[in-house]
Design brief:
CATH topology of one domain in chain A: MetI-like fold
Oligomer: heterodimer
Number of helices of chain B: 16
Radius of gyration of chain A: 24 Å
Helix content of chain A: over 70%
Largest sheet of chain B: 6 strands, mixed
Number of helices of chain A: 13
Radius of gyration of chain B: 26 Å
Distance between the termini of chain B: 66 Å
Order of helices and strands of chain A: HHHHHHHHHHHHH
Largest interface: A-B, 62 and 64 residues
Number of strands of chain A: 0
CATH architecture of one domain in chain A: Orthogonal Bundle
Shape of chain B: globular
Largest sheet of chain A: none
CATH class of one domain in chain A: Mainly Alpha
Shape of chain A: flat
Structural class of chain A: mainly alpha
Helix content of chain B: 25-40%
Strand content of chain B: 15-25%
Strand order of the largest sheet of chain B: 11-16-12-15-13-14
CATH superfamily of one domain in chain A: MetI-like
Chain lengths: 311, 541
């Protein structure tokens, strides 16, 4: 186990290194400069700026100093917004995006599992059809469309929730709903199908025959095995939710990280592009790493196989 | 093994809870503001779109900074209801006979928000800060009218050579290189606002947080939570505080026009822009207001690239464009079609609009277009027109217009043109490198004078980007800048525009406007064709 984790951890570092390097060279390959503006500033000023941001140095020197900035985790000041460092932007935006993402995942997982389980237990009954119809709609509607509809209905027409911004728990309801509906639907469908499969297994029949209470069978025996596929797709869902927050943050005017991520690319704000990309991918890879570990814990069989296969 | 899982889940939970509590604190903040509002205070709810770039007046040179700066600080002059510059921090202004030396007498009662008096030294400090090449202010070029300013800014001269001085605490003197009629207008731009010298010397980051910000305008910066919102409150130290009606202004930062409109609908904003999809539906709304904005949406030819090397071919394409149809059926936002380059909003010495006096210089005429194209092709000896590509920066509205042009060229000239969209930042770079044949452009005035628009096209100007060069035109612009007689200057400018629209390195499509929704009971918000939103006299009933 320990060896497996260590190996995965080292792979993680290599992946981040490759992402960082690719981002750096792609970023510089794209035409346009962070100092380009509609008006021309004079050459002295331009030269001062280039010197300040080290853009006058050869590319390999820039690459080295930027690799150093990753190791020391100090990305320097933003070019577009010189009053703030990239670290400040990350420290400000990330907790908010993280909060939005985590609440969304909690809501999606909990309600998705409940919905899927209910559908499986009432197979081919009203609840099943209703839940699956809901799931299909949830998967088909993109979150940005849902967001606009939610704002219009629940905030503007019915005045139940504030339409945008991120200032109180009430403000969180609509963005979380918009973002969680899709993943929730996916989880509900997965839970339902694997639950149906598990419920026909011999050991469930055995448990029933032993006279264990139905509730206990579902929670202790069936659900545990039925959740394996859900854990498997958690990694993909996480990535989906984290990138989904970009759009949702813009629509709901949530001051998270998505804005910096997108704006920095439009502005060619090199330090911010590098900072957000590396930070985001590192975070994502780390979460996938955690999911993998959890996976091993949940199903002892898999861990054993992997260990044998890896060593 | 189970312990691991439990521990992990607990860790996630603690994280989420910790994050939740942080934002719940933020929630209480805003509810306090809300309750203060119900206590009879007048709070205006505005949207700034995004985080202001900077409240350092030399750096915040864009619309997202100006809207706030123009109300937090004040320069020597300020625009009145008819968009004319009037005395503000300056009580009186003396201009020398040759129009070159301006002496500003600063009001005795003009104070900073910390209670200290605004001095001429604060202006000297701020303007030198703007021109300092180390500051790298994008606004510095506006000050090149001042003697020695350009030299200092491009590193050739010294700060002592800049002809601005404080004769005493309340007398500020400026010497210009040329009589510049628009000078009092130019200095209404926030980059010419004063900076409290003692504060800025002690703390160069004074402008980054609400606590350290010192202003001299109608409002004070009460709070600023970055990327979320900022709040103004009335500045009791302001010399004209008795004419300021609002107690507070709350600025949200909502960057999505649909969300902004929905917040307006839900009563969370008092003023909103109009989302493109809604413009038709809202055009008769009593809450809708339209105002000219000095600026032009136009297309640039590359006159060094065939077929636009030929003047008649350029004219042919220009006359094939039906500007009326574009504003009526494509943009649908109430813009005025442009039959010349200089927009509305500039009155000459005789009280006439520049645009009306200069007349309609290019207007849709399919027959003329067809004929010009034939003549042009004959001149060049072309049997077939070299292929033409229209380039524009990626955006739905630009695309709609480009597609319409494609259709209009086909109808009027029977020419098939290609369309090419390019990401905005790449587009700007490549346009400056003359990589496009025919490309989408826009011009927004930096200061309120027709010469600002026309001087873009003098030889080698960074705003030219067409490779067009015309000695007579350059000469006329230079003459206009040196002219002291208003009427003669006006005539020169009209003549220059005629040359531009005859040689046609560009063709105009429409002039810009400012359209916004405003709740009933909101009054006195000033907007200008060239200028910044002014809440000094705004009121909410």
């Amino acid at each position: 186990m320990g060896k497996y984790i260590l190996k995965r951890f080292l792979m993680m570092l290599v992946t981040i290194f490759i992402i960082a390097t690719l981002t750096f060279f792609l970023m510089h390959a794209v035409p346009g400069s962070p100092l380009e503006s509609d008006r021309n500033t004079n050459e002295t000023v331009q030269a001062n700026l280039e010197r300040f941001y080290k853009l006058d140095q050869p590319l390999h020197i820039q690459y080295l100093s930027y690799m150093q900035s990753i190791v020391t985790f100090d990305f320097g000041p933003s070019i577009k917004d010189p009053n703030r460092t990239v670290n400040e932007l990350l420290a400000r935006g990330f907790p908010i995006s993280f909060e939005l993402g985590m609440i969304t995942i909690l809501v999606a997982v909990v309600s998705g599992i409940i919905l899927g389980t209910m559908a499986a237990l009432r197979h081919n009954k009203m609840i099943d059809y209703a839940a699956m119809a809901f799931a299909v709609i949830g998967i088909s509607i993109p979150n940005f469309v849902l967001a606009t509809v939610l704002i219009q209905q629940l905030a503007v027409n019915w005045n139940l929730f504030p339409p945008a911004t991120w200032t109180s728990p009430m403000h969180m309801v609509l963005p979380v709903l918009a973002l969680a509906t899709g993943p929730m639907a996916i989880i509900a469908r997965l839970t339902r199908s694997s639950m149906l499969e598990v419920l026909t297994q011999d050991y469930i029949k055995m448990a029933r025959a032993k006279g264990i209470k139905p509730m206990r069978i579902v929670l202790r025996h069936a659900l545990r095995n039925a959740l394996m596929p859900v854990v498997t797709i958690m990694g993909t869902l996480l990535a989906g939710i984290l990138t989904g927050t970009f759009v949702i943050e813009k629509i709901f005017a949530i001051p998270g990280m998505g804005k910096y991520f997108v704006d920095s690319i439009n502005n060619r704000d090199y330090p911010v592009i590098m900072g957000t990309t590396v930070f985001y991918s590192a975070f994502l890879i780390f979460m996938l790493f955690l999911v993998d570990i959890v996976y091993g814990i949940l199903d002892p069989r898999i861990k054993l196989h992997k260990k044998e296969g890896d060593v | 093994m189970k312990k691991w899982l439990v521990l992990f889940l607990m860790a996630v939970f603690v994280f989420v809870l910790a994050a939740c509590t942080a934002s719940e604190d933020a929630g209480t903040d805003s509810s306090e503001e809300g309750s203060a509002d119900s206590g009879g205070e007048k709070t205006l709810f505005m949207n700034n779109g995004e985080e202001p770039t900077s409240f350092d007046p030399s750096i915040g040179f864009n619309a997202v900074s100006w809207g706030a700066l123009n109300n937090l600080m004040e320069g020597l002059t300020r625009l009145d209801e008819s968009s004319q510059p009037v005395e503000a921090t300056a009580e009186s202004i003396d201009v020398s006979e040759d129009g070159l030396t301006y002496t500003f007498n600063i009001r005795e009662e003009a104070n900073w928000s910390n209670g200290e008096p605004v001095t001429a030294g604060d202006f000297v400090f701020a303007w030198q800060h703007m021109l300092d090449p180390e500051t790298a202010s994008p606004a510095a070029f506006l000050a090149y009218f001042i003697e020695g300013a350009e030299g200092y800014n491009n590193g050739e001269g010294a700060v002592e050579d800049v002809a601005i001085s404080a004769e005493d605490d309340k007398t500020f003197v400026v010497k210009l290189t040329e009589p510049t009629e628009a000078f009092l207008n130019i200095i209404t731009n926030p980059s010419f606002f004063p900076i409290h010298e003692a504060t800025a010397t002690e703390n160069p980051d004074w402008h980054t947080e609400a606590d350290s910000f010192v202003g001299n305008g109608p409002f004070n910066l009460a709070s600023w939570s970055h990327d979320e919102d900022f709040v103004f409150e009335k500045n009791e130290e302001y010399w004209d505080a008795e004419n300021v009606n609002l107690d507070k202004v709350h600025w949200a930062m909502v960057n999505d026009p649909n969300t902004e409109y929905q917040m307006y609908e839900a009563g969370e904003l008092d003023v909103s822009s109009v989302p493109a999809e809604m413009s038709e539906q809202l055009q008769d709304s009593p809450e809708l207001g339209t105002m000219d904005q000095a600026g032009t949406y136009f297309y640039r030819y590359n006159v060094e690239e065939e077929p636009f090397t030929n003047k008649k071919v350029r004219q042919a394409f220009a006359y094939a464009v039906n500007q009326d149809d574009i504003v009526q059926y494509v943009t649908k936002n109430g813009e005025k079609p442009a039959y010349g380059f200089v927009s509305y909003g500039f009155e000459g010495p005789n009280g006439q609009e520049f645009r009306d006096e200069a007349g309609e210089l290019v207007k849709f005429d399919a027959d003329k277009a067809k004929q010009l194209l034939e003549e042009g092709m004959e001149e060049e000896g072309w049997d077939e027109l070299p292929p033409v590509t229209i380039s524009y920066s990626t955006s739905e509205s630009h695309q709609n217009i480009a597609e319409t042009l494609q259709d209009q060229f086909k109808t009027a000239l029977d020419v098939d043109v290609e369309l090419q969209n390019v990401e905005a930042s790449v587009f700007l770079t490549e346009q400056k490198e003359f990589k496009y044949q025919l490309s989408r452009s826009s011009f927004i005035h930096d200061y309120a004078d027709p010469v600002n628009a026309l001087e873009s096209f003098i030889t080698d100007s960074s705003m030219n980007r067409t490779q067009w060069s015309n000695e007579e035109f350059d000469q006329l612009i230079a003459e206009a800048k040196a002219e002291t007689d208003s009427a003669a200057r006006w005539e020169t400018l009209i003549e220059a525009e005629k040359i531009l629209m005859d040689e046609m390195p560009i063709f105009p499509i429409h002039f810009y406007n400012q359209v916004q929704l405003q709740k009933e009971g909101i009054e006195g918000i000033l907007r200008h064709p060239v200028g910044y939103i002014d809440l000094k006299t705004a009121d909410k009933n």
